């Protein structure tokens, strides 16, 4: 018997398909990202910190700090900065607030500093100061990378306050590769100091003859991103490589992360770097990029401002300079299971990414007319 299909039956699949398309389009529109420009005219902004009064403190590589309000008003340079050598990749770099900033007004910042005896030699330094009446006062230098050398490459540097109150500071190897393995220098190291600059009594290499006592881990290249895991409190860093081999590492006390002996990338010339990709006594990265994205800035997202993107909560967000994008790494059981590349149409170098107290992600773009952006 022949079955005759009625109008309703014929049109129903088309209506269902149309409805599904509309739902999909609505969902896409609902989850579309929007960048709001908070401030412009920043001179190669490098790092961002949020103050309790809802203002933001931004460092500019040229050597100035600025205060920025939520409505985008940018202050004149904050007075009280020490001399900063702004050359090449050096200048005023990271800034971090003391855990008790609300009461003691103390902050820390890293920058490139000239040698007193030979002004051509520079190194990464860390200063401690108080921000009072929008000025830096009671400033003291609590760490100086040793030795200082010429050139303008690979200063690092990020500052992270650990849960025990100590400071982790990442230091580049100043483009002197082999010295990343030399425990007698601070080149290519993560160091750990107390907030007054003294050395913690449980640092891992205190009993190692010839080792710098501040060293926490070594064998790093140019770490320009660092953050604490929101659950474990462990330090996570990433390292800016050459043509390939950018790495994410979890620096543990006294361990060697291999640079330049083991590496997953090539030199800028295309030549091989190091001996191999693995060697006994040297740690493997959690994740690496080849070719390089030139990562800078890093934060775990813990907020609730992106409800249509639930996978974002707990993800690691990383800015990319050469890659000109924001990278999201989705993690499961301590492993990267997915990489999402965002804002690729922006066409700007992303220097830093932070989570604001309002739960949004904030970005700094690296240019002579840099911007502070909010991702909504």
Describe, in plain words, how this protein is organized in 3D.
This protein is 7% helix and 37% strand. It contains two helices and 23 strands. The strands form six sheets. It has a four-stranded antiparallel sheet with strand order 1-23-22-21, with no helix packed on it. A four-stranded antiparallel sheet has the order 5-6-7-8. The chain has a four-stranded antiparallel sheet with strand order 9-10-11-12, with no helix packed on it. With 376 residues, the protein is mainly beta. A hairpin with a 2-residue loop joins β19 and β20. The protein is globular, with a radius of gyration of 23 Å.
Largest sheet: 4 strands, antiparallel
Distance between the termini: 60 Å
Strand order of the largest sheet: 1-23-22-21
Helix content: under 10%
Give the amount of beta strand, in percent: 35-45%
What is the helix/strand order? HEEEEEHEEEEEEEEEEEEEEEEEE
User: Averaged pLDDT, please?
Assistant: 93
Number of helices: 2
| SS content category | mainly beta
Label the overall shape: globular
Radius of gyration, whole Å: 23 Å
Q: Using DSSP, what is the number of strands?
A: 23
Which runs of at least 5 residues are low in confidence (pLDDT < 50)? 1-13, 15-30
